[in-house]
Amino acid sequence: MEQLTLIATCPMGLEAVLAREIRDLGYDTTVENGRVTFVGDKLAICRANLWLRTADRILIRMGQFEARTFDELFEGTRALPWSDWIAEDGEFPAEGRSHKSQLSSVPACQGIVKKAVVEHMKERYHTEWFKETGARYVMEVALLNDIATLTLDTTGVGLHKRGYRKLVTEAPLKETMAAAMVLLSRWRADRPLYDPFCGSGTIPIEAAMIGWNIAPGLRRTFAAEAWHSVPEALWTQAREEAYDLVRDDVPLEIVGSDIDSEAIDVAVAAAKAAGLAKELSLQVLPVAKARPRGDYGYVITNPPYGERLGDRGEVEKLLRQLGGMTSQLPTWSAFILSPSKQLEHYMGRPANKKRKLFNGRIECQLYQYFAPGGLFAKERNKRAEQQTSPDR
């Protein structure tokens, strides 16, 4: 089958996590800022959309060339194989962006791309007018340092829209970021997981989907499903593979709580829509009264913060209470996403590791606290033993 260059986009800071996901699907990767490029066939389009938890969307790279003038952009675009993908009745809007390039007017570049594709389509379909009433094929021209990259979006609505969340709380965490937090924690399904600020339940639900190996895109559709150029049989194959890989016999111990009863109502509805209501414990409870049970568990949470919700003094109080709770859990690890520069102070100890991530446009740190007997500690001790071994 024809090999394609595909691009998975993601929030800044998640490139390595996304690259690992793509490699787990069996594809080699090239990591760039905000995107991971890989080569695969048309089945890879289906698998990537269904499986990638931390990607925003999956693009087909149609071509890449130098474009310092509108003529170069027009001719380079017209030469690409658009009609191999776009049906005669297809709707094909052009989007664009430009950075550090001579062609700095994005609307003008979008117009040139649209005109060039129309001219290409005229030659293929032998018509002067396109109805554009059929499937949607969103084209994008991205200009960087005078290099134009032309893509087609196979996803449509962003991949964070899993299909289980019909209602939202005031400041929801994106599903892609929640999944990234769980993946970065190295949590395993045989360990307890607790989110004391669960809001609409995104972290517990994403964790359960990871624990049961449920492909996050199983309950939704994608733009390319309506394309004649990606056969329906490939989508059927990819979905059947995904259903076969579900491990719903694995017992889960995942708990979420929040002081906001309306948020918990939203979380319960989302868990039901995801088919996970019986696997999650979601309860109205202030963090000061939270008492996670079990050994070697994981606290994974996105506490409220001043820029997002609530009063600053109240937020500081909540963070101190979170620190008090985790201090009573010596065998637990904690992963806390927050923009607060003082979080370690409120927690009462420095984080073992910090990672810069963006929650929307807000710069945050993922503060990572590793339990002495946790998975990270065991891996670290194993590496230390290997380095000091007399056999080396």
UniProtKB/TrEMBL annotation:
The keyword Ribosomal protein does not apply. PROSITE patterns: N6_MTASE, UPF0020. SUPFAM superfamilies: S-adenosyl-L-methionine-dependent methyltransferases. SMART domains: THUMP. CDD domains: THUMP_AdoMetMT. One of its GO terms (molecular function) is rRNA (guanine-N2-)-methyltransferase activity. InterPro entries: DNA_methylase_N6_adenine_CS, RlmKL-like_Mtase, RlmKL-like_Mtase_CS, RlmL_1st, SAM-dependent_MTases_sf, THUMP_dom. Residues 57-154 form the THUMP domain. Keywords: Methyltransferase, Transferase. PANTHER family: RIBOSOMAL RNA LARGE SUBUNIT METHYLTRANSFERASE K/L (PTHR47313), RIBOSOMAL RNA LARGE SUBUNIT METHYLTRANSFERASE K_L (PTHR47313:SF1). This is Class I SAM-dependent RNA methyltransferase. It comes from Paenibacillus xerothermodurans. The lineage of its organism: Bacteria, Bacillati, Bacillota, Bacilli, Bacillales.
